Amino acid sequence: MMKYHKVILKPKKEDSLLRFHPWIFSGAIQSIEGKPEEGDLVEVYGSTGRFLAVGHCQIGSIAVRALSFTPATIDAGFWKERITKAYDLRKCLRLTGNDDNNNTYRLIHGEGDNLPGLIVDMYAHTAVMQAHSVGMHAARHAIAEALVAVLGAELKNIYYKSDATLPYKADLGNEDGYLYGGEIEDISVENGLKFHVDWIKGQKTGFFVDQRENRALLEYYAEGRSVLNMFCYTGGFSFYAMRGKARLVHSVDSSAKAISLTNKNVSLNFPDDPRHTAYADDAFKFLERMGHNYDLIILDPPAFAKHRNVLRNALQGYRKLNAIAFEKIQPGGILFTFSCSQVVSREDFRLAVFSAAAQSGRSVRILHQLTQPADHPVNIYHPEGEYLKGLVLYVE
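^ thats the sequence. predicted structure below, dont judge the formating
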């Protein structure tokens, strides 16, 4: 086995690793042998000399992200094995194969696929790779080679998109670009609906793949309703609502670029359909002046809290946002409301929404409790991976 730098933990600090939690926090470390650079591979040992893990070291409160809890050489064979296991799971979910009904899914979901710090989304024949750690950034070419080996003819392009997700203090420069192929193929399919994906300039990897099943549920409720899709981004919920026979659909986002892509996606599926209008506007301002015109509202804001030190402000934001929706939605209306902030627990989010409901004084019932789909698996030893929370509420 290849020799790596050693990280020695303080006494009684190995319990979480023995339970296979993949994060080693800086406060648990007693000493480090050698001087590993951020992104280097290190071995982690307990205070008695017991081997615990091998992983990528990094600067910050999370000091090491564990890749393996048994001695392992992190080489081409390792990447191929882990990606094969991730791909086999997606085959089990019947998401692979580029069929006519669906060619869009998450292939690798960080800790959920035992590859902490790595995200790969598939859009037709293009894989969009995103690194959240310097270690995964350093391994990007080896990972790309493994993706080609595992996916074969299903894969034509790999686009690397990590400029916004890598630690800014690492000062790595902008490395975004194609690692393989280069053909621009921007029409993807999800549950039979088509959409453009801007993986070069768009948010995240270009589309929010994690809302696929929740969008399908919205379609079920849309018939005959006046729908407001707040924070619409590229319009995913909007064109599902239209296929669900909504009476009208209004899409709102503060980004004019997102609104442009929303209009393109709606036109791709429903050309010249007068039911849809999109607005580039601030969400809170739009909600405040919108009147009581909607009986189905979607609130899917960007993460209000990315760190625990802003959690309180984030919960206040969720309360305010939902309170306005409860006040304005028509009687018999349905509210789809979400949080994608990992640091906001399911209980905290529910409490924020419940407080908003109580403030409105309206009778509210829970119809569904939502989460991320199966191609965003949660490692049972890493409950923090359950980041997407959602409620479907009936408002009298």
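The CA atoms of residues 22 and 363 lie 43 Å apart.
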